[in-house]
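Chain X:
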Amino acid sequence: MIVRSLESMVGTDRDVHGETWNSRRFLLKGDGMGFSLHDTILHEGTVTRMWYKNHVEAVYCIEGEGKLEDLDNGETYEIKAGTMYALNGNERHILTATSTLRMVCVFNPPVTGKEVHDEDGAYPLIEE
């Protein structure tokens, strides 16, 4: 059994910071669950361009408001607490945080915790 609290991860190697976000990683590849689970904050007023070409991701917004733009088809979606989206087709997308967004994110394959967004906005596949 794995039990972790958010406060126990803050300031550790499971608390990963990017330019527009920070992600607290509850489950990583090394935990052996077959997916990774993140509590991610996107900072108010930021625009984050992403393309998870090596992963599928499901995202559940639990706080804040923003806009999701699917760069593959031009559609936009309002994001607010209670909204879920799944990038089941490796869609290129932009997430604009009109207020601070707090998201619960699940990645498959799971991330190792060492990934950072590359120039495409993607995480590389890292083998441990």
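Chain Y:
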Amino acid sequence: MEVFLLWHVRHARNLDDSVDHVDADGELACDDEEGDDLKLLGVCSSERRARERIERAGAAWFR
């Protein structure tokens, strides 16, 4: 069974006030030990339901 895990990530700021969203390979960078805030929004059984959940979370910018 395929499921869709939806996470909200609030990235911590670096000392120079920048924010690292991705690593050198272009993959999502998140590390709660470094101060990033991770929240599981939900586990959905279809892409349609995942997109509906994203909309309910107020993330209309997701495409």
